[in-house]
Amino acid sequence: MLKRFIAYYRPHRKMFILDMLASLLISVIGMIYPIFSRTMLNDLIPNHRLRLLVIYGLTLLALYAVRMLLRYFVQFYGHMVGVGMQAQMRSDMFNKLETLPYSFYDEHETGKIMSRMTNDLMDVSELAHHGPENLLISGIMIVGSFVYLCTISVPLTLIIFACVPIMVVVSLFCRKRMRDAFTESRKSIAVINAALESSISGIRVTKAFTNADKEAEKFEKGNAQFVEARKKAYRAMAQFFSSTSFITDVFNVVVMLAGGLFMYAGKINFGDYSAFIVSVNQFIGPVTTLINFMEQYQNGVTGFERFLEIMDEQPEQESPNARDLQNVQGEITLDHVSFSYDNSKEVLKDVSLNIKKGETLALVGPSGGGKTTLRRSIGIVQQDVFLFNGSIKENILYGRLDATDGEVIEAAKRANIHDYVMTLPDGYDTQIGERGVKLSGGQKQRLSIARVFLKNPAILILDEATSALDNTTEILIQQALDELCKGRTTLVVAHRLSTIKNADEICVIANGQITEMGTHEALMEKGGVYHDLYSLQFRSGESDHLQFLMQE
Fold first, then answer.
1. How far apart are CA 242 and CA 477, in angstroms?
2. Helix/strand/coil for 466
3. pTM for the whole thing?
4. b vs e for 256-274, b when ≥16 Cβ sit within 10 Å of the residue's Cβ?
5. Tens digits of per-residue pLDDT, 498-528?
6. How many CB atoms are located within 10 Å of the residue 527 CB?
7. How far apart are CA 524 and CA 404, in angstroms?
8. How many helices (H) and strands (E) does the chain have?
9. Three-class secondary structure of residue 459 per DSSP
10. In angstroms, rounded to a whole number, what is the distance separating the alpha carbons of residues 396 and 412?
11. Cα distances (Å, whole numbers) of residue 285 to 161, 172, 199, 245
12. Are residues 460 and 488 in contact, defined by beta-carbon separation less than 8 angstroms?
């Protein structure tokens, strides 16, 4: 994991090196004060060397001014290194998400994925900047303090530093508990984000059914889980900080007693004792910084681990024998095809079909019979239209990003949406809102049809494209669909059997197998499954219980 984390520093290594050099100079300047104070107390003040005393003071002031500039550099550019790394991780995660199969999204809620890309990577960014900086500055200050204290009194220094192993033991003891607690806390935040995303996306349904109380109940369940997780995390953190803070307090007691005894015994003078106290504080400061850094470290490591969980997901796999289709004309052949989802029950069983260019083929059967497994093609118009938050033009352009404005308008005209667009104040630049919320169902559908017109596919799937529309809108949509299907090999999923009467051929699929095949008239005369389905639909009107897949 460390190797993969370090790899994100490579594009920013020049700025990172400068940041570390600035941090090094900050540490060195920090060590100047106790050295100067010892010299002043032991030499300059007792010997009345006023000129050197002023020079030392002005030099120290100048060094602090330099340290101010260095700290500005570290705070700004150091953080920008972290932001750059965060941006690269976010891009890598987004690109990874684009390669994952549908099954991944079935198992992971959108809000939880978003939490990993935002909250988790923000913590990783902070760790990327503050981690090396804190370790370098604190490490140098601790080592430097130890060396300098030894020049004053080795025995007293060893007594003081004997407290360090105690702090290490306490830190290691509390570290695992903190790590586990903060991991659970991250998961609870993801639960809240998932619930929030779901509730906001479905706000219209919630209001329509006056179920705000139910949504609040679901949200509060996740909220309570978050509170409990944070409670455990803060309890572990409180134990850690209270214990280590007590040890730092012990440092001060040891310094006071041991230093007093050494001074009483004549082992050190007043100036050395004063410098020793200052230098010990220079040591305690970095130790405290490292202690405080532990929380940030835990958050950053946990966030990076959750980032790697997604990065290590297996992308959607293609068959090693897969070949790119060239010059697609529209002929489709299935040669003894079988299919199942995740090694579960077989959906298609040894299906063979040959659909010639421009022919109309309908697949008919009960729900779950295996009809819609054949949906993979080049162009698709679905019942549940997905539109992006943007303008009408941008959503049509999704069919072919390099299309001209004229081609966009022509596609909109063929989809019977152009006249409506021209009534809008901003025309094709009109913003349609999240998921096209500002458009009606029919307008969304025509916009999606315009998108496919622009793509101009050889093979087309119509996935129940008119099932959710009223009769008047359906007629308008059907006209656009008829125009779209001309000259294309098209598969259609439809609730209404009347829409497939003109198909060149109809296949009835049950239990993943083709049981009947022929034209509408031939299958009606046969009096089999198709006849029964057709008669049932038009006798009872319960078309909602039937689904059909047709090629136009």
1. 69
2. coil
3. 0.63
4. eebbeebbeeeebeebbbb
5. 667 777 778 787 777 888 888 888 888 888 8
6. 10
7. 48
8. 19, 9
9. strand
10. 8
11. 14, 20, 47, 11
12. yes
